[in-house]
Amino acid sequence: MKHPTRRSALALAAVAALALTGCGSSDPLGGGDTASGSPAGTGGTGGTARADTLVIGSQQYYSNEIIAELYAQALEAEGYTVQREYQIGQREVYLPEVESGAIDVMPEYSGNLLQYYDAEATATSPEDIHAALAQALPEGLRPLEPAEATDQDSYNVTRQFAEKHSLTSLADLRNVDEPLKVAANSEFETRPYGPEGLKKAYGVDVTVVPVEDSGGPLTVKALVDGDVQLADIYSADPSIESEDLVTLEDPENLILPQNVTPIVSDAVDEEAAAVIDEVNAKLTAEELIGLNRQSVEEQASSADIAEEWLAGQGLA
Amino acid sequence: MNQLWEAVLWCLDPGRWTGPSGIAARSLEHLGYTLLAVLIAAAVAVPIGWWVGHTGKGRGAAVAVSGAARALPTLGVLTLAGLLLGIGLVAPMTAFVILAIPSILAAAYAGFEAVDRRVIDAARAQGYTGAQVLWWIEVPLGLPVLVGGLRSAALQVVATATLAAYVGAGGLGRYLFLGLKTQDYAMMLGSSLLVVTLALVLDGVFALAGRAAVPRGVTVARRGVTA
User: How far apart are CA A154 and CA A68, in angstroms?
Assistant: First the structure.
């Protein structure tokens, strides 16, 4: 079952490579046109065949794939036929696929998804975000009930640094008298919750040290080594606990909550939605970190992780 | 074509050239990383290559090691080194040096092997010591091949040095990653064009150096043969 995944990932990589070398004459780099780079497997399944096969996608992010696999196996256990299209890049790449109906179920994160569709959105609580999201999504798509689990950018410091400057929240950073560096992906610089947002909400100046592994081991290492004082790490990352890091609180809601929220097409009827809802209801913050830990620390495959978890929760 | 034009415009915007993260500063960093990596790699590989070429010992090992090192994926080495050494310049520099060593090592001993055995025999017959053969004959006659090795090493490193930005260092890779992550493809393609330009300039410089490295006696002899 993994092979189609790999193959579509390869196909995408090939498309990307072609695009990078500038061979494409059809302007493959042109933002919204990325639909032309659809995974080979999905294009042909459009139309009538999709009614009985549900296509489940995932981001190019291991944790997102695990969540997608939870939905996939839960649906299969209820007799649905599922086609997996995992590891399809980031929002700019897969959302056009979801909008076109090539993907029926996509695990998403509420706050960032809302900002994708509505950059001016003002909602900050999980409930308001969910309500706004239901309005903002294009025709034919709807969000299912969000899980309690969130996975969002978070500012982290080492326990030692937190104690030295008695830090619990981002506002406390004002009292730190040394220059502050944040290890994060380079795009962090341009995000609303990046340095500019931090300055506006808390009056704190930071500079970004780009480390391009999305809060992975290199970022954590930079923080623990003291090369940087802060690191942007996803809140469901098990290394926050294993490295004894302190996540600074965000009383001004600079970073929007990112509850795990499945986005589904009309091909997902009430019964199928109920199956996914049932999985989501059990997906607490701790459960998600536990799932991620099995991938990061034990290198278990998403299929094995999902199978074990669903059995443990009595869902499959 | 439109994308390419936007990328060219991106490169040419004078406002982007100045400042600590301007194109000029980033290009200099990029060039600096490249030269430093080639220099370190040469300091390691040239003595070993000359020793292998001069004595004929350890040739099998040198071929095996440089062959294996060529197969190492640089991003993997970089990540591994980063996890051991932390972020900054040391980890990417380690990866770039490993990338540069094989070409230089192979060129150093291949240059010696290309020297006509009769020249060395003649030198020995005139009473040259081993050291004199090395410094007066093998090194100067092997130099053009060695410069060729440095040239290909520099090209590989200049094209790969974008990865330094992966672990918090500078260079033109900063633009490449930022452009990739923020869908700013003019920036991404523009920075690639800058890397290509830098590579072409370096290649030209090494081509000239390669010509200058040919000893005068050899050019005279060649002219004599063709005349």
Answer: 23
Both tokens assigned to A120: 């001016």
In the numeric block, which tokens belong to residue B117? 């055995």
Interface test with A, best of B3, B166, B167 (most A CBs within 10 A): B167
- Statement to judge: residues A139 and A178 lie in one domain: no
ipTM: 0.79
Helix (H, G, I), strand (E, B) or coil at B69: helix
A110 within domain boundaries? yes
Dist. CA A34–CA A23, nearest whole Å: 15
Nearest to A222 among B4, B86, B185 (CB): B86
Non-local (6+) Cβ contacts of A22 within 8 A are B3, B4, B189
**Quick one: A33 and A20 in the same domain?**
yes
Q: For A226-284, how does the pLDDT look when each residue is reduced to its tens digit (9 = 90+)?
A: 999 999 999 999 999 999 999 999 998 889 899 999 999 999 999 999 999 999 999 99
**Within its chain, how far is the Cα of B11 from the centroid?**
25
b/e per residue, B191-206, with b = 16+ CB within 10 A? bbbbbeebbeebeeeb
**pTM given for the model:** 0.78
Whether B219 has its CB under 8 Å from any CB of chain A: the answer is no
**Is B82 near chain A, with CB under 8 Å?**
yes
Number of domains in chain B: 1
Location of structure tokens 């780009």: A210
Q: Do B167 and A225 touch (CB under 8 A)?
A: no
In chain A, how many domains are there? 2
Q: Going by C-beta distance under 8 Å and a sequence separation of 6 or more, which residues neighbour residue A224?
A: A158, A243
The A-side interface with B (CB below 8 A) comprises 20, 22, 27, 29-31, 92, 183, 185-187, 189-190, 209-213, 217-218, 221-222, 225, 227-228
